Each structure stands twice: as structure tokens, then as C-alpha cells.
Request: fold
Amino acid sequence: MQDTGLHNMDAATLLAWHIAMGADEAIDDECVDRFTAPAPQAATVQQPPTQQSGASPRVQQSRPGVQMQAGTGPRRVEARPVQAIAGAGQAAAESVVASCKTLDELEAALNAFDGGLLKRSAKNTVFADGTRGAPLMIVGEAPGADEDQQGKPFVGVSGQLLDKMLNASGMSRDKDVYISNVVPWRPLGNRTPDQAVITMCLPFIRKHIELAAPKAVLMLGGVSAKALLGTEDGITRLRGRWREIDIRGQKFAALPAYHPAYLLRQPALKGLAWRDLLAVKRKLQSS
Ligand code: URA
Reply:
């Protein structure tokens, strides 16, 4: 077997390496060494048609078109085409959302969409939480570990801060707030989603805003604000100033604000975030 050098690392270094690669959660209670564990028996494989009569010695024909693989040795896995790993792309997303007329249809379309490696590595597609038809729609960046686990946006520590701030301002997700993210799948290792992923997901969140039809959109963090406003400006420059998101000619008032995760690291900025939330309340009362 190829020497990867991993066996020379101490356990802590190896663990840190796995976390950096995105393997930051246990998927079972017991450890399994996948290199030595026997492959599942009798896996079915599709073979290309052959000119020779009879199947190869390791493959038995069970019914037309389906062949059973005998033995318990390691199973050969065909490489997936790069296109499938990358995901279906923005053009496919645009065409999928074009036919969605309701939030339920959009959610079903997103669940069926080929979100590439990101979707395959996530436990859940995180669509939305809160109240449909609410006057305020909050759009974050992407799910973290807790959101991926529960299938709902902003349920971890930054979600708890968000709820506290909303409640203090007299709002709540049970009543007047609807919440989603630009990217519906947890990025590996909690990284910032890369531009290709954001571009692919953009048609979904734009359609989501259009169908949710809020009076105002609160964009939490630079990823959300940059994606929805189509700008390269950073959140420090953007926050606190009302902008418009134009979706197929419909204009949505949108305010960029600091992300609660950033506020947890920079508590001194909570005053500005509070000011932004009060600006949102005023906007909702005046519209
Ligand atoms: N951060 C986000 O941007 N969205 C979530 O849902 C959770 C954390």
C-alpha cells in the first residue's frame, strides 16, 4: 500500500489533520478500520455487455442485466465524474428554481438538487426555520455542525445569540421572523463556503426570498451580504446601510449586519448590531 506517512504522526496531530480535512464528527459509536474490514457481501454491480459467452469467473449472472459479485474481497469503486463532484452548477439551479411556485416546491427542488460533494458530505439540507409569511427574512451564511445535525438554521450558539437579540427587540422566529442561509449544506470543516458553491446556491436563496416575500431582509455576515448584493465590499463597510435586492424586477429592502458568530468573538460590536436590529424594526413598522 502507498506510504502516506500518516502512521508516523502522533495521535493528536492525526486527529487535527482529520478535523482540518472535514472529518470532525464521529459517525458511529465504534471505530471501524475501513482498510481491513471485509467488504459487504453480494453487492450488485452493472457490467458492460461483453462479446464473450459466459460471465467472468468472479461474477455470476442472477437475472438479466444484473450480476452478482462473488467473494468478500475489497470492492472496486468507480471514480465519479468530476462534474458530479462539483455539483450541477448555477445554470442547473436557475432552471430548477424557474418552475417553483411555492416554498414547498422550492424545498423539494433543493432536496432533489445535485449539490455535489458539499451536499453528499452534509447530514441535512437546511432549508429554513421560523414563520412563513413573516415580515422579516434573515439570511445567514451556511449551516454549522448543530444546524446540520438538526436540519434547521441558527440553532447553535450563534443562533442562541440571534434569538436573544430578536427577543430583546420584541421579535421571534415563532412570530415574525423567517430564517434561511445562502448555502443550505454545511461546508466541510466549517470553512467559509467557496465562491463556486455560493454561485451555485444563489438562484435558490434568491427564489427563496421572492417566494417568502418579506417586507425586509436582514443579511447576517459578509458572505450573505456580498452574495445577495453582488458586491466585493466587506461587512464593516456594508453594515447598517439599507440596500435593495432586485429579484426579477421586485425590490426587497435589505440591511447588511454583523453575523452573530462574529459578535461572539467581538462583543464590543454588539452595540452596532443592536442599532441595526432597531433599524429593521423601524423599517417594518413604517412599511
Ligand atoms: N451560521 C450561519 O450563517 N447560519 C447558520 O444556520 C448557523 C450558523
In short: The first strand starts at residue 44 and ends at 45. The chain has a mean pLDDT of 84. Strands lie at 44-45, 59-63, 66-69, 129-130, 136-140, 177-181, 216-220, 243-247, 250-257. Residues 140-144, 147, 153-154, 156, 158-159, 181, 261 surround uracil (CB under 6 Å).
